[in-house]
Amino acid sequence: MFLRLVEPRDVVFECGPRCGCGPSCLNRTSQRGLKYQLEVYRTKDKGWAVRSRDLIPSGAPVCEYIGILRKSDELDNVSGNDYIFDIDCWQTMNGIGGRERRLRDVSIPSSNHAKERNDHISETGPEFCIDAGLYGNVARFINHSCEPNLFVQCVLSSHHDVRLARVVLFAADNILPMQELTYDYGYELDSVTGPDGKIKELPCYCGTADCRKRLY
């Protein structure tokens, strides 16, 4: 048995190592590892993709985005890596950079020092990211869609630092067996530039009715 998250929130707080409960606690929903048989397969236009052999109910945690934690300013030395996930929870919470606010305001316990640090974060963009280029899990192969069946959720369990939140993918709908799993990568159009300073464009092949035709 586990709790389901019906809609995305700014941040979800789960029990952590300082809590007296055990791993069966209902408030450790996203910490229980993979519960569904996920399969990586090859597509015609989008490269690798992921689907489940099982029915995934709406609101269920599917998998965490796993990789190497990096500081974003280290990425200048990472070339040709398409598996970077910005931990942009603070920016999302404040609607910065075109990111859509999630549904609920949260109060994150913090000191005045932490507040000043977070104000600085909001101005400079995500300080940390997850790099799944060399080390990762099945989440790195999940494709973008303009009408996804997963949503991204920031989860805090062992600490309250939104810069280092865990990134977990939850089911937005009931997902039938063998249906491709997708989430919205969240790029703004014309937001990605190459080393030459020119705007890069990448077509979107999700094929949905409201496809934006470009990933970025």
The CATH first-level class comes to: Mainly Beta
As residue ranges, the low-confidence spans are 98-117
Morphology call: globular
Look at the structure and give the mean pLDDT.
82
The overall strand count is 11
Strand content: 15-25%
Helix content: under 10%
Can you identify the CATH superfamily? SET domain
Secondary structural class: mainly beta
Question: So how many helices?
Answer: 2
Q: Give me the strand/helix succession.
A: EEEEEEHHEEEEE
How many domain regions? 1
CATH architecture: Beta Complex
Strand order of the largest sheet: 1-9-10-4
| Topology-level CATH name | Beta-clip-like
Rounded Rg: 17 Å
Give a short account of the largest sheet. 4 strands, mixed
Q: Could you tell me how far the N terminus lies from the C terminus, measured between alpha carbons in angstroms?
A: 39 Å
Please characterize this protein's 3D structure:
Residues 200-216 form the Post-SET domain. One of its GO terms (molecular function) is histone methyltransferase activity. Residues 36-186 form the SET domain. It holds the Pfam family SET. With 216 residues, this protein is mainly beta. Helices cover 8% and strands 20% of the residues. It has a single domain, classed as Beta-clip-like. The protein contains two helices and eleven strands. The strands form four sheets. A four-stranded mixed β-sheet has the order 1-9-10-4, with no helix packed on it. A three-stranded antiparallel β-sheet has the order 5-7-6, with no helix packed on it. It is globular.
